[in-house]
Amino acid sequence: MAAVDFLVAVDSFPKPDDKIRSTSFQVQGGGNAGNALTCAARLGLSPRIISKVGDDSQGKAILEEFEADGVDTSFMVVSKGGHSTFSYVVVDSQTKTRTCIYTPGYPPMIPEDLSKSNLSSALDDVRLVYFDGVLQEAELLSALVVAREAWTGNPSVPDALVSVLLKLPNVKFVIVTLGEDGCMMLERSEAEDLQSEESDVKELFKKMKKSIDTDSTSATCISSDITQLHAKGIGTVSGRLLLGTAEKIPPSELVDTTGAGDAFIGAVLYGKQNLLCSHYT
Question: Is the pLDDT of residue 243 over 90?
Answer without folding.
Answer: yes
